[in-house]
Amino acid sequence: MTRGQVLRYALAFALRRSRKIIRGLKQELTEDERYAVADHVVWQLKERGDPWRLDEEAPTVKPPST
């Protein structure tokens, strides 16, 4: 999974309660709309020179050892 994909999923998840945040929005965004917004954000960031290296593999997080 790339950094861009991780960001896309995080953005789409964050937009689940968009109606509470965006004044004037009459209903929640659909899942397709949330992912469309997230895709557009990632695309815009990549168009700006991509200092975030969104096409690189995302680091894996290992669970803490007990």
Average pLDDT across residues? 90
User: What class would the helix/strand composition place it in?
Assistant: mainly alpha
Radius of gyration: 15 Å
Which regions have little confidence, pLDDT < 50, spanning 5+ residues?
Answer: none
Largest sheet: none
Give me the strand/helix succession. Answer: HHH
State the helical fraction: 40-55%
Give a concise summary.
The protein has 66 residues and is mainly α. It has three helices and no strands. It has a domain at 3-47.
SSE inventory with pairings:
Layout: H1 3-14, H2 18-21, H3 31-47
Molecular structure report:
This protein is flat. The chain is mostly helical and 66 residues long. The chain has a domain at 3-47. It has helices spanning 3-14, 18-21, 31-47. It contains three helices and no strands. Helix 1 (3-14) crosses helix 3. The mean pLDDT is 90.
Name some characteristics of this structure.
66 residues, mainly alpha
